[in-house]
Amino acid sequence: MPLEIVTVPCLTDNYAFLLHAPISGLTALVDAPEAAPIEAELAKRGWNLDFILITHHHADHIQAVDALREKFDTTVIGAEADAHRLPALDMKVKDGTVFSLASEEVRVMDVSGHTNGHIAFYLPNAKALFSADSLMALGCGRLFEGTAEEMFASLSKMAALPAETTVFSGHEYTQANAKFALTVDPNNEDLLARVASIDAAREKGEATVPSNLGLELATNPFLRPHIAELQTQLNMVGASPDAVFAEIRRRKDNF
Ligand code: ZN
Ligand code: FE
User: Fold this and answer.
1) Which 3 state secondary structure label does DSSP give 131?
2) 76 touches 87 (CB < 8 A)
3) Residue 56 CA: which ligand is closest?
4) Ligand nearest to C-alpha 145
5) CATH of 4-253, one of 3.30.450.20, 3.60.15.10, 3.30.70.100, 3.30.565.10
6) Which of 49, 55, 133, 203 is the most exposed place for a label (fewest CB within 10 A)?
7) Are 18 and 6 in contact (CB under 8 A)?
């Protein structure tokens, strides 16, 4: 039976995700922005909370860990490199760590850039990537700690996953990202179509997360610095993808 994945909107624009394995009955949470909506979702479904997976140290991803740990007998998993600034970890992981949740394989990827020590969780059988504030729907996280080169290397690793991968990112930022994307890739038909569907979804109050990696590859400017049309728009024909990525990120910061 496939893993059930439930999106839990938290705070103003954060997303947490519950992963439930129907056979074992085990449930994992990816990121803990706010206890109340997560507890309400668990209660509604009659699920326990067995694992909490942490992507990075920002408060809007970890601040409910301790409150949830008080209510549930839960195993908290996060990056060894960030253990000093995360809630107490029961299991420390790093790039390349493979573990299983129920019988589901989870692969840890270091995707530093937004922060140093930001990790993503990739579940090959579920074809799901939990990327939080690294790869985001039509965007990527701001460079608070890492360099443009580090972020682009992280995005490139995720871009190499199968195109059918579902991308679960940490915030509802897609509509703002879309406005920016149009400024650097205005003739991209796939992007224009996606922006129309994003606007329609937001009009109805629907989430635009998760998205799909194939769609990100076709429309997310941060995954496309090697594309000639984008380089032309930026007056950077022939520049390295690293340099073009850095310019796109710089423009987004000032947008
Ligand atoms: Zn963050
Ligand atoms: Fe965040």
Assistant:
1) strand
2) yes
3) 1
4) 1
5) 3.60.15.10
6) 203
7) yes
Distance, CA of 212 to CA of 165 (rounded, Å): 6
Q: How far is CA 238 from the centre of its chain?
A: 30
Is 102 exposed, middle or buried (CB count within 10 Å of its CB: 0-12, 13-18, 19+)? middle
Centre of ligand 1 to C-alpha 189, Å, is: 30
Q: Which ligand is nearest to the CA of 82?
A: 1
Distance CA 192, CA 210 (A): 19
Report domain extents, the chain. 4-253
Identify residue 246 by its one-letter amino acid code.
Answer: A
Distance (Å) of CA 172 to CA 8, 120, 136, 158, 206: 12, 18, 9, 20, 10
Q: Quick check: pTM over 0.85?
A: yes
**Which residue, 164, 26, 14, is CA-closest to 100?**
26
**What secondary structure does DSSP assign to 21-70, as a single string?**
-TTT--EEEE--S-HHHHHHHHHHHT----EEE-----HHHHTTHHHHHH
Task: List per-residue pLDDT tens for the chain, 255 residues long.
Answer: 789 999 999 999 999 999 999 999 999 999 999 999 999 999 999 999 999 999 999 999 999 999 999 999 999 999 999 999 999 999 999 999 999 998 899 999 999 999 999 999 999 999 999 999 999 999 999 999 999 999 999 999 999 999 999 999 999 999 999 999 999 999 999 999 999 999 999 999 999 999 999 999 999 999 999 999 999 999 999 999 999 999 999 999 999
Tell me how far the alpha carbon of residue 190 lies from the centroid of ligand 1, in angstroms.
Answer: 28
Q: Which two tokens stand for residue 229?
A: 């049309």
Instruction: Give how far the C-alpha of residue 178 lies from the chain's centroid of Cα atoms, to the nearest Å.
Output: 17
